[in-house]
Amino acid sequence: DTEVTQTPKHLVMGMTNKKSLKCEQHMGHRAMYWYKQKAKKPPELMFVYSYEKLSINESVPSRFSPECPNSSLLNLHLHALQPEDSALYLCASSRDYNEQFFGPGTRLTVL
Amino acid sequence: KQEVTQIPAALSVPEGENLVLNCSFTDSAIYNLQWFRQDPGKGLTSLLLIQSSQREQTSGRLNASLDKSSGRSTLYIAASQPGDSATYLCAADHGSGNTGKLIFGQGTTLQVKP
Predict the structure, then answer these.
(1) Residues from chain A contacting residue B51 (CB–CB below 8 Å)
(2) Nearest CB to A42: which of B34, B99, B107?
(3) Integer angstrom CA distances of residue A98 from A52, A55, B39, B49, B101
(4) Which one of A74, A99, A107 would you mutate to disrupt binding with B, by most B Cβ within 10 Å of its Cβ?
(5) CA-CA 20 to 30 A from B50: which of A39, A79, A94, B59?
């Protein structure tokens, strides 16, 4: 298995909702990442996990809460989001900190 | 602080033409540089990774070079095809060791006309 999968593909949520994004890889990669991408902009790093421990938090608001339950799975818990948080959320993984492989993304709309 | 720039922002070429995409970075102490392709509304596809100790990498019709001293990388696409139409992004690590933190350029949107 040489891909990163993300679910759901699309998500619409209200500002009071709680939802989660899921990312999975079975390549044995020990680093996993969350990125946020706004339209016509490059991805911006949010979080990095290394060996299931959070190693980088790019000063992301607490309404975004990452979780790495095991080496294959990465979640992003969402709560009390704002309309400006609407974006494409991308997950990536890598062996150590080298070549990063991205999933297809979750298109999030906050109403 | 690492900054990555890609020029031009958009490029249109006829099918069959060879082309070069440019990427420049401000901090030459990079660990690696990666080129990606992104189709509209999709995720990123890794094209090539160049380690700091390497000068170039090749995959099929693609060749990426790295010149750390000048802070530049290029992606050469040979015999372009309409299917190559996409946004191409380069990303360098942030220059303070190998942490996985990639800094992306704004991208070059390529259109290859049949």
Answers:
(1) 98
(2) B107
(3) 17, 15, 23, 8, 10
(4) A99
(5) A39
Tell me the C-alpha distance between A65 and A78, whole Å. 7
A74 contacts A65 by C-beta, under 8 angstroms: no
CB contact under 8 A, B49 and A99: yes
Q: pLDDT in tens for each of the 111 residues of chain A?
A: 669 999 999 999 999 999 999 999 999 999 999 999 999 999 999 999 999 999 999 999 999 999 999 999 999 999 999 999 999 999 999 998 889 999 999 999 999
What tokens appear for A43 in the block? 């991805």
Question: Do the beta carbons of residue A46 and residue A60 sit within 8 Å?
Answer: yes
